[in-house]
Amino acid sequence: MMQQHPAAPPPPQRQPPPQMQFVQTIFTPDGMTGALTPYSRSPELRVSHKLAERKRRKEMKELFEELKDAMPDETFRNTKASKWEILSKAIEYIGTLNIAAQEHDALVQERDALRQQVDALSRQSS
């Protein structure tokens, strides 16, 4: 006769974290089973989440206002603008600043080269 190995014990079931307490529906009298419903948060966690979300939205609103106020266009500041408009204008403005910075760097290099030429000519004439 073959030896039978005892069945392996089932793996231990992991408990969901407190914020994900699963609620299982009850078997109905006709034998139908309900599915697992999405987790529900405890009242304390819901309140905490609401407060954190409210704070995040307030901070985002303030940052968008700050970005809008940093834009050079005066008429833009006095009107109500959507977040999309603020971001679009900011990206456009940053692009303009990058181009201006590149032009500035090129002018500084040209100035330095001209100064070197002037210095060289001054030494030759002395």
From TrEMBL:
The record, for SUPFAM superfamilies, names: HLH, helix-loop-helix DNA-binding domain
* Gene Ontology terms: biological process: positive regulation of transcription by RNA polymerase II
Q: What is this protein called?
A: BHLH domain-containing protein
Compositionally biased spans, kind Pro residues = 7-19
Task: Print the keywords alphabetically.
Answer: Coiled coil, DNA-binding, Nucleus
Question: InterPro entries recorded for this chain?
Answer: bHLH_dom (IPR011598), HLH_DNA-bd_sf (IPR036638), Tscrpt_reg_Myc (IPR002418)
Say which species the protein is native to.
Answer: Rhizophlyctis rosea
Span of domain BHLH: 44-97
What GO molecular function annotations does the UniProt record carry, in alphabetical order?
A: DNA binding; DNA-binding transcription factor activity; protein dimerization activity
